[in-house]
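Methods — Computational structure assignment.
A single polypeptide chain was analysed. Its primary sequence is given first, followed by the predicted tertiary structure written as structure tokens.
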Amino acid sequence: MVTTELPVLAPPRVAHRGRGTTYVLLAALFFSTSGTLGKSVMSAGVSPQQVAAARIALAGVVLLAGVALVAPRKLRVRRAELPVLAGYGLLGVAGVQLLYFVAAGRIPVGIAILLEFVSPVLIALWVRFVRRHRLPRAVWGGIALAMAGLALVAQVWEGVTLDGLGLLAGFGAALCS
């Protein structure tokens, strides 16, 4: 007689709202200070490339140490995964940071953030027109509200002079994102 036993699965981890809220608040704090601090450092003569490299290096060290302590097995990478990992690192991390700081060095930080955050619009347009998948109206409404909110925060109506290279870098950051 053959019996088949099902594997015993560990109960799912319950996410704690307090921990999630703390992470979101910390992320918002770090993100909100990044542009202002970066712009100040660039005003002191540090290049956007140096600011982006310092930010990426600091984040890399902190994340590497955290993962090494909590889940070291997640640091193992198979050879077949290296091209995707390298591409993501160059475009999704370094490209976004570098182009954002180039934009923030040439145009107001709020406008640079607004341009970088065009990325959800680009993703929605990709899904709609390249993948030919209809998105719910709520997605478009959410994107419109988010962009309007960013425009209000950036105060785009204020008398700002815009730099062409800064604008291109901001859109480049959105594409990399």
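Note: DSSP finds seven helices and no strands in the chain.
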